[in-house]
């Protein structure tokens, strides 16, 4: 319940109008109203230039000096999982928010006394965590074919027979609906930052959908130079497209443009090196797919004489600017190359299990983590995951890390998995200065987890309970930049009922246009 001094229950801060999906951007870049050319300004950046302090010391008055702004909101009474350097959990603590930033984190009585009359979001009895990070999520294509793509397809068929035809038939309007569905699901599972995987044909409608939903994230556009493939072009044209997106959504905005390639074996050396140079020259991160299965190593060995990561190292593509999705099938030399270059990896374990890609045989993500590698978690796409629940993903990542070496003492347990979903995930995607922990100066991206369900009784270790016992269904409220985008388990920025209705129509149309073999596995017959 929000208590407001003027008795106007504004949620946390009213969204600028709840919207459904009726308004769709028109195609065509020249008149596209959804492509900003400057970064949005922030309302407050208190303590942003100071090193984050411990939550306890901030509450004792050691935070930023004058001028000290007054908070707009206090999130009060929850057990605050700060994910600060000491990983402090403040029992019955409070987070003070000014504008889109965290002003202070500390004792409830202290912050109420310092700022009397401030509106409050009551989180008593709840657990408050930083907003979680989904480092690899396809927003278009599969979402409108949810639960239709079989889980017993031959290797590659989920791409060739499903994903490519679906994407080829996608319109800009489909991209908008599909992205809204994806964003709403992520938000309701506590994900506040989403890295688009780079299979978007119409990036500006997708960015508009992300703005509408209120999620923080990145957007890219199709990047491959494969003859005859949907949305393919020669390397210079692809690089021009990528540059346009990066320039349209600069760093610091709610949505940032990234250099995105489809990856795998679907990019020439010219495109790979050009994309890396574009990332380095603009400061925009780069992401691409690589080695979720044996097919990428086989392709690269045949065409280049090197394994995939080794070939990227040879080309000079690796580095801290790069986030590789998957990296399951790695040789020793490739592991070393990732570690020494500080290249990050987005780990999507549910995808590899659903597609039978051999993560239990070949995956080395636990080793990458133990050796200080940069690692984040992702949920991939509908043909590979069917869910965007990062807490479920965190549990699977921890379980695989223990089970594969038959060693329950490995470093990647519940606490570490929660780090991958928050502060270490933020570092892997290059945003640790802004998100990933609840500390003064960072964006007010946070999640209130209700603890009234049976999975929370009795209460125990918070990391264990979040990762092993709970999942996204416990998410009650979500704030992104101080704005309430989920309240009482419902999205506040999108009319979910209208969205579901529109998605059903769009799905039927897309399945028919694309010609994919969508049919139920069991006979569905009328009940009468």
In DSSP terms (H or I, runs of 4 or more residues), the helix count works out at 18
Shape label: globular
Report the structural category.
alpha/beta
Q: Would you count the extended β strands for me? A: 19
Percent range for β-strand residues: 15-25%
Average pLDDT taken over every residue: 88
Describe the structure.
This protein is α/β, with parallel strands linked by helices. It contains 18 helices and 19 strands. It has helices at residues 55-62, 108-114, 157-169, 172-188, 203-213, 235-248, 269-282, 295-304, 308-315, 332-341, 349-354, 359-362, 365-370, 390-403, 414-421, 423-428, 462-469, 496-514; strands spanning 2-3, 73-81, 89-98, 101-107, 120-122, 127-130, 132-137, 191-196, 216-219, 255-257, 259-263, 286-290, 322-326, 344-347, 375-377, 446-449, 475-480, 483-487, 490-491. The strands form 3 sheets. Strands 1, 2, 3, 4, 5, 6, 16, 17, 18 and 19 form a 10-stranded mixed sheet that branches. It has a 5-stranded parallel sheet with strand order 11-12-13-14-15. Strands 7-8-9-10 form a 4-stranded parallel sheet. Helix 6 packs parallel to helix 7. It is globular and about 65 Å long.
